[in-house]
Design goal:
Low-confidence stretches: none
Mean pLDDT: 95
Number of helices: 2
Helix content: under 10%
Number of strands: 11
Structural class: mainly beta
Strand content: over 45%
Order of helices and strands: EEEEEHEEEEEEH
Oligomer: single chain
């Protein structure tokens, strides 16, 4: 099994509709260059006891905590992620801003040269973290760090799609279109 060794092409797509009839997204747009991504699923679990021992454990999906580091975050990207606006080159942030609901996609290179493709289907980001240092003898470049929470769609309960291009039966047309639109759930062959 090939290990993940890379990360690139982080995209977002605004979720415009999510109800029992379907989920609709705007066309994906690429964010700045990827440095790292950490996805941590959260599950709520409850132990069920009987006869003085654990009889069963009932678990339910809660969300996926996301931490992303980018080489930078343009004002336009920041405004999009936070629900803010850019006016004449100035980012205007307001307490009234509401972060949009969106999907997050990227790909990760494996050591065999193939890629894993990921879409988190519904979530929101918090305000971006800013770090600044004075210039010193050696440069100390700073990157942009984002935190978000992703959860299941109302439409179908799905929260993530993962595709490995080297997986047996992988549909190359799905992978080729991965960043042109948030993919629909594939239908099984009959």
């Amino acid at each position: 099994m090939a290990r993940q060794i890379g990360l690139r092409d982080i995209h977002i797509a605004l979720l415009t509709d999510d109800d029992n009839t379907g989920a609709t997204y705007q066309a994906p747009s690429k964010l700045e260059r990827a440095v790292s991504a950490k996805l941590t699923p959260k599950v709520n679990s409850e132990n069920i006891y009987s006869d003085d021992t654990v009889e069963d454990i009932i678990s339910s999906f809660d969300s996926v905590e996301v931490e992303i580091e980018l080489n930078q975050l343009s004002l336009t990207s920041r405004a999009t992620l936070q629900g803010a606006k850019v006016v004449k080159g100035v980012l205007v942030e307001s307490k009234e801003d509401i972060a949009p609901t969106l999907a997050l996609g990227f790909k990760s290179k494996k050591h065999n040269g193939k890629y894993r493709y990921v879409w988190l289907l519904k979530g929101k980001f918090e305000l971006a973290t800013d770090e600044y240092d004075t210039e010193a003898d050696k440069p100390s470049p700073k990157s942009a760090k984002l935190k978000g929470t992703f959860f299941s769609r109302d439409f179908d309960g799905n929260f993530r799609f993962i595709a490995d291009e080297d997986e047996a039966g992988a549909d190359p047309t799905i992978i080729a279109a991965w960043f042109t639109a948030v993919p629909a759930e594939p239908t099984p062959a009959v």
